[in-house]
Specification:
Blueprint lengths: L6 H32 L5 H4 L5 E6 L6 E5 L6 E5 L6 E3 L7 E6 L6 E5 L8 E5 L5 E3 L8 E6 L5 E10 L2 E8 L5 E5 L6 E5 L5 E7 L5 E7 L8 E2 L9 E6 L5 E6 L7 E6 L5 E5 L4 E7 L5 E8 L2 E8 L4 E2 L10 E7 L5 E8 L2 E9 L6 E2 L17 E6 L5 E7 L10 E7 L13 H8 L3 E5 L9 H4 L9 H13 L5 E11 L1 H12 L7 E4 L5 H4 L11 H8 L6 H7 L12 E6 L7 H13 L4 E6 L9 H20 L3
Length: about 650
């Protein structure tokens, strides 16, 4: 039995206890300060000194790789020596230029670019002497590449030159560029694939955001009429993807058999349908090497891409060499002789780097170092997948980035990030913009609200005609989840996003004005009444699907006014930053102009960054730096309160 303490002994005990607590508190504070001081913060200029790479293709003899790189500040074409990594710049454009690939039989190059972000892409040829030919001229023409014939003598091109609303299919002679109309698209089909010999064309037709079909067109028939191959009773998505290398089969994707998208094969001779590939998540893509020896497929597994490479001769998966670090594979391409493979590798803390591997060799060669030399990768943050319950008990996933400075004794402000769409998905992977914010002490929770893709068709359709309502509540409950974390400052949580995410940001400030302390709206819709009647003409084939999800402006104007932040901007009381591209064809500049004016009229702090040479997304490095600096400066002033 313990003896009772005397008054003096009790006082000594209390004093010792308080000293111990104080010592522990001081120790924790010191530890937090040490961690914070050990982490170097970097400027936006340093983060965007990181090089972004896209596209990779071998030339006919495998001696060159073609990529697009923004190392000069904007995407241009570069040739890479796969043995040495030496790069040669091929274009000097002031507009982002993206590689399509080499011609099959020589080293001429196909590439595409638009004008200042207007999304009117043309298809160009860089000839052997360095001159450039625009295959698809026209001030209002929009074009895209549809493939080469097996022998390389014909290239197929889609353009809307006849009718701005629809993309017709043309074939061009690879040498003379003489063209011929193959398919006059008057019914709103979308060309999905062309058989290797050019005879068959696979077409997709969207009926609604739940239902679509695919068709086969035989161009050798005197009266060419598409034949439906996907008859079904219950609404489901059926979309043709590609023909087999031998041209005997057509691969298509469908969610008719379950929650997730599977890959099926249609035999052109027998008419039989058979399962080709399935997983517990959506199949994202599948393609073959030149002869079909290697099959590359991807699965959207919980916001990350899981890639498999199968040797069809052995039906075994290729194992990459041990010197290739862990990460996400993308852009897998094979040389024409199938002896070499190029691929990109990336992670949350590392942007895409280009590798080349002589298949079977002990090591793969890394050809690029994309992360700025000034950045220590250990200062960057890996994400984690987090789930929480929303207002109605539905489980909502998200991608969470915890700053290394954050702890229970050093709580940090946080941001809910909302992806674009509607129907997009926040995914793992490197983002200079997000890492810049996290590096400067802002937690980011990229919430995949109901209506996001990648989690099954039921989840995807839960927000149909409920935008700015049920999906907004998911965002609010994402904020409430952040408030349960002991390392988050519960009183300093903002919201930001681009495109549809920008809309959700403005909606949150207008319809839930007390929930978030600040908002950053990046080219977001503010007036659905106007936006849904001013979509680009080339979206015609998808208009029905968009209306099924958002509502038809002819019948749903009242609801569109109800969910449009512009008409409720008088409710906005928290600081707002708006960023917009003047050439944006999807979200017109006037959307942002009017929101900024309305919020200013409330006497609320509002900042506006407008880029005269950008569209729906910022392709120029200088503009991305300006935008990222604006985010941090705005948040430091109005959320963190340190500026």
């Amino acid at each position: 039995m313990h003896k009772p303490l005397t008054a003096v002994a009790l006082a000594i005990a209390v004093s010792l206890s308080l000293s111990a607590c104080q010592s522990s508190s001081d120790s924790q504070a010191t530890s937090a300060t040490q961690v914070q001081n050990a982490i170097q913060t970097y400027s936006a200029e340093t983060f965007f000194d990181t090089v972004s790479l896209t596209g990779s293709s071998f030339n006919k003899d495998g001696s060159k790789l073609l990529i697009s790189s923004d190392e000069t500040g904007i995407y241009n074409l570069f040739e890479v020596n796969p043995k040495t990594g030496e790069r040669t710049q091929l274009t000097q454009s002031q507009d982002s230029t993206y590689s399509v690939g080499y011609f099959p039989n020589d080293d001429r190059i196909l590439f595409t670019r638009d004008n200042g972000g207007n999304e009117l892409y043309h298809l160009f040829v860089r000839n052997l002497d360095g001159t450039v030919t625009d295959l698809t001229p026209g001030e209002k023409t929009r074009a895209s590449f549809a493939g080469f014939s097996k022998d390389g003598n014909t290239l197929f091109v889609l353009t809307n030159e006849r009718d701005p609303k629809f993309m017709d299919l043309y074939k061009y002679d690879s040498k003379t560029f003489a063209k011929e109309l193959v398919y006059k698209n008057e019914l709103g089909f979308n060309v999905a694939a062309i058989s290797p010999d050019g005879r068959f064309v696979a077409l997709n037709k969207t009926h609604s955001n739940r239902d679509s079909d695919f068709y086969l067109l035989d161009t050798l028939k005197r009266i060419a009429k598409p034949t439906i191959l996907s008859r079904h009773e219950e609404p489901a998505q059926y979309n043709a993807w590609s023909f087999s290398v031998d041209g005997k089969s057509l691969y298509y994707a469908t969610n008719a058999k379950g929650e997730f998208r599977q890959l099926w094969r249609y035999d052109l001779d027998s008419g039989e349908h058979s399962l080709a590939l399935a997983d517990d998540w959506d199949i994202s893509f599948m393609r073959f090497s030149e002869s079909g020896r290697y099959q590359v497929s991807g699965v959207n597994a919980d916001a990350s891409t899981k890639v498999s490479i199968i040797d069809t001769a052995t039906n075994k998966q290729l194992t990459l060499p041990s010197n290739v670090p862990k990460g996400t594979l993308s852009g897998v391409e094979f040389s024409k002789d199938e002896k070499s493979m190029s691929f990109y590798l990336s992670s949350d803390t590392s942007p895409r780097n280009l590798y080349v591997w002589e298949i079977g060799a002990d090591n793969a060669k890394r050809l690029t170092s994309s992360l700025s030399k000034e950045i220590n990768e250990n200062d960057l943050v890996e994400s984690q997948i987090v789930r929480f319950k929303s207002f109605d008990g539905l489980t909502i996933p998200g991608v969470l980035y915890k700053p290394k400075q954050a702890s229970a004794t050093n709580k940090v402000p946080a941001l809910i990030w909302v992806h674009g769409g509607p129907g997009g998905q926040s995914r793992t992977g490197y983002s200079a913009m997000q890492q810049h914010l996290v590096n400067h002490g802002y937690a980011i929770f990229a919430v995949n609200n109901r209506g996001s893709s990648g989690y099954g068709k039921t989840f995807f359709h839960l927000d149909d005609k409920k935008h700015g309502e049920d999906d907004l509540q998911d965002i609010v409950f994402g904020k409430k989840h952040l408030q349960t974390l002991d390392w988050v400052d519960a009183d300093k949580i903002g919201i930001m996003g681009g495109s549809y995410g920008g809309y959700m940001t403005a909606a949150a400030l207008a319809f839930e004005p007390e929930e978030f302390e600040v908002g950053i709206n990046i080219f977001g819709v503010t007036n659905w009444v106007r936006t849904l009647t001013s979509i680009p003409p080339w979206w015609e084939s998808f208009k029905k699907s968009l209306y099924d999800e958002m509502g038809d402006p002819a019948t749903d104007e009242q609801r569109h006014r109800r969910i449009s932040p512009l008409f409720h901007a008088h409710n906005i009381t928290k600081p707002l930053l708006v960023v917009q591209g003047a050439n944006d064809p999807r979200v017109l500049q006037v959307e942002s102009d009017e929101l900024v004016a309305a919020v200013k009229a409330n006497g609320v702090p509002v900042e506006y960054v407008l880029f005269d040479d950008e569209g729906h997304g910022f392709s120029k490095r200088a503009n991305r730096i300006t935008a990222s600096n604006a985010y941090v400066s705005f948040l430091d002033k109005y959320l963190k309160g340190t500026e």
